[in-house]
Amino acid sequence: MTEELPALYVAPTPLGNLGDITLRTLEVLRAVRWVAAEDTRHSAPLLARFGVSAKLIACHEHNEEAAAEQVIARLAAGESVALVSDAGTPGISDPGARLVARVRAAGLRVVPLPGPCAAVTAFSAAGLADAHFLFYGFLPAKAGQREAALRQLLRLPYALVFYEAPHRIVDTVAALATAFGGERTLVLARELTKMFEQIHRCPLAEASAWLAADADRQRGEFVLIVAGAPESADESDAEGERVLRLLLDEGLPVKQAAKLAHAITGKAKNALYAQALELRQQPG
Ligand code: SAM
Fold it and tell me: By three-state DSSP, how is residue 63 classified?
């Protein structure tokens, strides 16, 4: 890699299994003089295990701008820097994007190294037929904001990939079922690459009961993938929309319009409610 210097190398690290670091990433980490790390206390022992002796620069959410100055100064001095996060690929629901932007804006080189990423790892084993997927990452923690976010995603015909932490997994899975209805498939991938790795696939309607059946299933780190909205959704949306428009034009409140439209069309109440909210915001 010597001829590629100097550059900021974006270096993915293992999600759990140390064997997942790539040969190229190892080579880069061992060759650079500096490693910018999301949490230096977390990365120091990991880097030591890999025989990396580079000096560490703290680069986290709260100091990314200041860290960028430091990194740019090193690069300008002809030294290379690797960027690592706690696990997986920097910049993917992790700090890194602002540093990368600053380095690029300074006309300096950024070299991405392929490697572990929980979203891609989970999707590769989900076995979903969706040709496309949308990486969402973490949903908002507050229930109202989370519901609003899910309403925006409801009708997208792409598999949806979410990240979630153990203390929110039960609430988030329940919210997904409420927002999307029980029929869509959920793939729940926990503890990927680790000893208790588990990849479970079921209809959303069954997901909460599956989690509740064993407290261990609520532990660890999670990727949740929801299959995309079915193709037929468009047609039934059109019928739902026609009925909702009539009811809203008559001045009915959103909630009541959704309830009546449900009685008339048999479509899911949540979906109609979300559709009614959208229609109310659009000019007639
Ligand atoms: N940058 C990382 C990546 O490339 O995937 C993601 C970092 S984000 C702060 C952490 C989240 O990633 C976790 O809350 C979880 O949703 C997901 N994650 C990380 N490691 C995981 C694993 N071993 N199994 C399942 N999900 C994981």
Answer: coil
